[in-house]
Amino acid sequence: MIDFTLNKNMVLHIHTLGEEKTPIIVIDDFVNNVDALINFAVFSQNTRETFYAQESDFYPGVRKAAPLSYIEQLKALSPIINSHFNMADKSEFNVILSAFSIACTEPDKLRPIQMLPHFDTPNMKQLAMVHFLCDETHGGTSFYKHKALGYERITKERLIPYRQAIKQQAMAQKLHKNPHYINGSTALFEQIFSVEAKLNRVVIYPSNLLHSGNINAANCYACDPINGRLTIGSFMVLC
Questions:
Q1: Are 211 and 129 in contact (CB under 8 A)?
Q2: 92, 93, 109, 210: which could join 144 in a potential S-S bond, CB 3.0 to 4.6 Å?
Q3: How far apart are CA 208 and CA 190, in angstroms?
Q4: What is the pTM of this model?
Q5: How many other CB atoms are there within 10 angstroms of residue 191's CB atom?
Q6: C-alpha neighbours within 13 Å on the C-beta side of residue 235
Q7: Are 106 and 221 in contact (CB under 8 A)?
């Protein structure tokens, strides 16, 4: 049986972001056998475990499902999540997606929405987790504030004004004429925090935080799990 167990001696770092004081968790040495996860991504080839691009979302690359035994292990994070996200009355969460991911879309093929920080959902009870199966050369994850509106998180109340503003600004900036990944502050967004990629590091944050991967052009946008920016992305909804 492949060992996907979490490391009992994992190292936690708690950070508070921006003016909205949003907590995020960074965990080093997350699983006991990170090589087993990487090998699973590289060598498993059955139908459920094939990397493919999903046209239904805006992820700029390819994904394939994480092993169910890994997903089961994530339930052990409940005490950590409940404590640091002020969810003391919550005892568990549901993992609604967990997938190996490789961000590898060439910049000239990006859609304008993929050139900006994004949020996953306005749902205040959903968390996102990125597990880095690559090193710092592939780029970490950064968090942003929309300068004009001052938003760092997109709630249901902020959704319509944010969408209206960003559509107008993207058109005014003519993003489609200069396609690129965002990696730092711009005229529209201020980078408020960045987590460097590190093998077997995890970052957990509210899904409605504006964020983006720091996609490194030096790695030539490789779409294979050996040379590419391999991560596991997971979404968890608090019950």
A1: no
A2: 210
A3: 16
A4: 0.94
A5: 18
A6: 14
A7: yes
